[in-house]
Design goal:
The complex is a heterodimer of chains A (about 400) and B (about 290).
Chain A: H1 34-37, H2 47-68, H3 71-96, H4 104-119, H5 127-149, H6 154-174, H7 176-179, E1 185-186, H8 194-203, H9 210-234, H10 236-246, H11 248-253, H12 258-284, E2 286-287, H13 294-307, H14 312-335, H15 340-344, H16 346-361, H17 365-388
Chain B: H1 2-32, H2 39-55, H3 60-83, H4 91-113, E1 118-119, E2 130-131, E3 134-135, H5 140-162, H6 164-174, H7 176-181, H8 186-209, E4 213-214, H9 220-233, H10 238-258, H11 266-280, H12 289-293
Antiparallel strand pairs in B: 1-4, 2-3
Helix pairs in contact in B: 1-5, 1-8, 1-9, 1-10, 2-3, 2-4, 2-8, 3-8, 5-6, 6-8, 9-10, 9-11, 10-11
Classes of the chains: A mainly alpha (about 400), B mainly alpha (about 290).
C-alpha cells in the first residue's frame, strides 16, 4: 500500500491513455480524463455539449427518482442535495486546488442566514433571487477569507479555516436581535408556484406537496451547480488549479499568479457553500448556530474524501453516505441495546473511523480507487502492446 | 483597577492552559510534521477517565496521575497504529486522519460516558486570597494552574536539554535520516514524542475542566484556541507556543471583559487575531525563513 502514499502527486494529466508513467494516488485525486477518450466515446466531443447532454439525462433521472420515492425519502433527498452542493464546492477547493478548508460549515451558515433574513420580509423576493443573494453573501465572505488563505499553507490554512468554522456562527449569537441568538431563526418555507402543481400532475399524477417542492428546488440547484463546476474543472481554469496544486514552482514559472488562482478557487467553493446553506435553510426551516458546528465542516470533508478527492461524482456519493448512513447505524445501535442519545453518536463515530480507514487503505477514495484500477490496467495493456511491437518497455 | 487586574489574571491563567495545549501540538509538529487535530478529544477522553475515577471515590491526585498516564498510552497507541501509516505522506492525508480521529474519539466519549454536562472538581478553591480586608483577585486554583503548567514545561526543557533520550528525540525531529544513521531508533522516539505530547494535552484538558462542567465536546474551544496559539507562535517553536498562548489568553480575556456582550465575541476575535498575525507573518511570530517554507 505504501506506493499509494507517495508524497509526489501525479501530474495533472496522468490519465492520458498511452501514459506509461507509474500511476500513483494521493488524497489530492485527479480529474477524470475523458477528453483523451473522446474518440471511442458515444458522447459528443465538445465538453459543453457533452455536459449539457449529461445534465439533461440527470434532470430526467432526478424527476423519476423524486416521483417514485416516498415523501420521507423526498426530504432525505433534499438533505442530500445541500450536502452535495457544498461538497461539490469543497471538491473544487480541496481536490482541484489542494487547499483544505474546515470552515465551509460557516460559509453555509452565511448562506442560510441570508436566506432566512430575506424570506422573513413582508413580501419575500422570488426564491431564485433570494438564493442568489445567499450565494453573493457567502462569496463575499469567501473572498475575504480566501485572500488571507491564499498566503497560507497546509496546517496554517487548516487553522485559519478552523477558527472561521468556530468563530463565524458566534456572530449570530452576538447580533441576536437580527439573527435570533442561540435559538436561531425560523425560516418561512417558500410556496410552490402554480406551474409546479401542474407539472407534477402531468408527470406522475402525484400531489405536489411542499416537501416535494423543496426537494425539487434542491435538485435544480444541485444540477446547476454541478453543471457549472464540471465545466469549470474541464476548462483552462481547472487545469490551472491543478497545476497550482501539483507543480507550484512550474506553474509560477509559467506565469501563473498562484495567489489569485487560490483566491478564485476559494471564491467558487464559497459560492457553492452559500447556495448549499440557502437550500439547507429552506429544507430544515431553521437557521441556528447549532446547525453549523465543526462537525458539519468535517462531515463535508468526509464526503469528499470517501468519494474520492477531485471528483464530483465522488462528492455526490460521499454526500449520499452522509444522509443514509446515520439512520442506518443509529437503528443498528438501538438494536444492540444503546439508548437513542448514545446511538445518535454512532454516526459521527462511523464517519471518523471511515475517514481513518479510507486514508490508510485507499487514499484515493471510492471513485479514485476504481479509476486507479482502471488506469493501471490500461497502462499495463499499453505496455504489453509496446512490448509486442518490439519496443523496449521501460518500467517507470 | 481591581477589575483590570482580575481580567488580566484570568487571561494569564487561561493563556497558560492554551500555551500547554499549543506546546503539545508543537511537540508533535516538530517531530512528525503533523498537526494533531485529535489532541483535544484525546485530552477529553483522559479527563473523563479521571472523572470516572473521582466519581468512584478516588482522590483528585490519583485521578490526575491516571489521566496523564492514560494520555501517554493513548498518544503512543495512536501514533503506532493510526499515524504511522500516513507519516511522511501527503500533508492532506495526515490532516484528514487526525480529523477522523477527533470525531471518532469525541463520539466514543459520548457513547461510553454519556453526553450530559457533568461537573468536574478542582483541588483548590476559586475564591481570591484575602490580604487584610481586601480580596485580591488571585485564586488558589489559578496559582495551581499556572504552577502545574510551569512545572511540566520545566520538566520538558530538562528532558530535552539534559538527557540522552531528549537528545535522541531532538535528533529524530531534526533529521530522521541522520538520526537513524547514528543509531537512534527514530520510530520509538516518535512514539515517545506523541505520548509526551498527549500527556501535556491531557494536563491542559484537566486544568480547563477544573471547577466547571465537562461534556464530550468541551474541548472544542480549547482545540481552536490552542491551535491558534500554536500558529501565532509559528508551530515550530516551543517558546512561540507559550508566547502565543499568553497573547491569546490575554487578548480574549480583555475582549470578554471589556467589549459589550464580549463573551459572544471571543471565538470570532480569535479568528481576527489569527488572520492579522498571519497577514503580517504568514509563518507565525517565531518562524524562521526555513520554517516558513514548510
Amino acid at each position: 500500500m505504501s506506493d499509494l502514499q507517495s508524497p509526489a502527486s501525479t501530474p495533472g494529466t496522468a490519465g492520458k491513455a498511452s501514459s506509461e508513467a507509474p500511476v500513483k494516488a494521493t488524497a489530492g485525486g485527479d480529474a477524470p480524463s475523458a477528453p483523451a477518450e473522446a474518440g471511442r466515446s458515444f458522447l459528443p466531443g465538445s465538453t459543453l455539449l457533452r455536459h449539457l447532454l449529461v445534465l439533461a439525462v440527470c434532470a430526467v433521472l432526478a424527476v423519476v427518482i423524486l416521483e417514485i420515492t416516498s415523501p420521507f425519502q423526498n426530504s432525505q433527498l433534499a438533505t442530500l442535495t445541500y450536502y452535495a452542493i457544498a461538497a461539490g464546492g469543497l471538491t473544487v477547493l480541496t481536490g482541484m486546488n489542494g487547499q483544505i478548508s474546515l470552515g465551509h460549515g460557516a460559509l453555509m451558515a452565511a448562506g442560510a442566514y441570508t436566506t432566512a433574513l430575506f424570506l422573513d420580509a413582508e413580501e419575500p423576493l422570488p426564491l431564485p433571487v433570494i438564493l442568489l443573494a445567499a450565494v453573493v453573501v457567502a462569496t463575499a465572505i469567501g473572498a475575504l477569507v480566501g485572500v488571507a488563505a491564499a498566503r497560507l499553507h497546509g496546517p496554517y490554512l487548516a487553522g485559519a479555516t478552523l477558527a472561521l468554522a468556530v468563530g463565524l456562527p458566534g456572530l449570530a449569537i452576538y447580533f441576536h436581535d437580527i439573527f435570533g441568538g442561540e435559538q436561531g431563526m425560523r425560516v418561512r418555507a417558500p410556496q410552490a408556484p402554480e406551474w409546479f402543481d401542474g407539472f407534477i400532475a402531468a408527470v406522475s399524477g402525484n400531489a405536489a406537496s411542499s416537501t416535494k417542492w423543496l426537494a425539487y428546488v434542491g435538485a435544480i440547484c444541485l444540477l446547476i451547480t454541478y453543471f457549472f463546476l464540471a465545466n469549470l474543472i474541464r476548462s483552462r481554469i481547472g487545469r490551472t488549479w491543478r497545476a497550482v496544486r501539483d507543480q507550484e514552482v512550474a506553474a509560477e514559472l509559467a506565469g501563473v499568479n498562484l495567489g489569485a488562482w487560490r483566491v478564485l478557487a476559494f471564491v467558487v467553493s464559497a459560492a457553492a457553500a452559500g447556495l448549499a446553506g440557502g437550500v439547507l435553510a429552506i429544507v430544515v426551516r431553521l437557521a441556528a448556530p447549532s446547525g453549523f458546528t465543526l462537525v458539519l465542516s468535517i462531515a463535508l470533508l468526509t464526503a469528499i474524501v470517501i468519494g474520492g478527492l477531485g471528483s464530483l461524482i465522488g462528492a455526490l456519493l460521499g454526500s449520499a453516505l452522509l444522509v443514509f448512513l446515520p439512520p442506518f447505524v443509529t437503528d443498528l445501535g438501538v438494536d444492540f441495546g444503546l439508548n437513542q442519545t448514545e446511538a445518535a453518536q454512532l454516526a459521527p463515530f462511523v464517519y471518523g473511523v471511515v475517514l481513518i480507514v479510507v486514508m490508510i487503505a485507499a487514499p484515493a477514495g471510492f471513485v479514485g480507487t476504481i479509476r486507479l484500477r482502471w488506469m493501471t490496467r490500461k497502462a499495463k495493456r499499453a505496455m504489453a502492446q509496446a512490448g509486442a511491437d518490439g519496443a523496449s518497455s521501460s518500467r517507470g | 483597577m481591581d477589575y483590570f487586574v482580575n481580567v488580566t489574571l484570568t487571561g494569564l491563567t487561561q493563556g497558560m492552559i492554551y500555551s500547554a495545549f499549543a506546546l503539545a501540538l508543537v511537540l508533535i509538529w516538530r517531530s512528525t510534521r503533523i498537526v494533531n487535530f485529535a489532541q483535544g478529544s484525546m485530552a477529553a477522553a483522559t479527563t473523563f477517565i479521571a472523572l470516572a475515577l473521582i466519581q468512584a471515590g478516588a482522590s483528585y491526585w490519583v485521578a490526575l496521575i491516571a489521566a496523564l498516564a492514560s494520555g501517554f498510552v493513548l498518544g503512543a497507541i495512536v501514533e503506532r497504529v493510526i499515524i504511522r501509516p500516513v507519516e511522511g505522506g501527503p500533508e492532506l492525508n495526515a490532516v484528514i486522519v487526525t480529523l477522523g480521529l477527533f470525531v471518532a474519539i469525541q463520539a466514543s466519549i459520548a457513547i461510553i460516558f454519556g453526553s450530559s454536562f457533568q461537573s468536574f472538581p478542582t483541588p483548590f478553591g476559586v475564591r481570591g486570597f484575602e490580604v487584610g480586608d481586601t480580596t485580591i483577585p488571585l485564586t488558589p486554583t489559578s496559582l495551581y494552574v499556572i504552577g502545574s503548567v510551569l512545572i511540566v514545561m520545566a520538566l520538558l526543557v530538562a528532558l530535552f536539554r539534559f538527557t540522552r533520550v531528549g537528545l535522541a528525540m531532538r535528533a529524530s525531529a531534526f533529521s530522521q535520516e541522520v538520526a537513524r544513521l547514528l543509531g537512534v531508533k527514530v520510530g520509538g522516539m516518535l512514539t515517545l514524542g506523541w505520548g509526551l505530547a498527549a500527556v501535556v494535552g491531557s494536563l491542559s484538558g484537566l486544568l480547563i475542566a477544573g471547577g466547571t462542567f465537562v461534556w464530550p465536546a468541551y474541548m472544542d474551544a480549547l482545540i481552536v484556541f490552542g491551535f491558534v496559539a500554536a500558529i501565532i507562535g509559528g508551530l515550530d517553536s516551543p517558546v512561540g507556543a507559550i508566547v502565543g498562548g499568553l497573547i491569546l489568553g490575554l487578548a480574549l480575556s480583555y475582549v470578554s471583559g471589556y467589549a459589550p456582550r464580549g463573551s459572544a465575541l471571543v471565538n470570532i476575535s480569535a479568528l481576527v487575531i489569527l488572520i492579522v498575525v498571519l497577514l503580517v507573518r504568514p509563518g507565525g511570530l517565531f518562524s524562521s525563513t526555513t520554517a516558513r517554507r514548510a
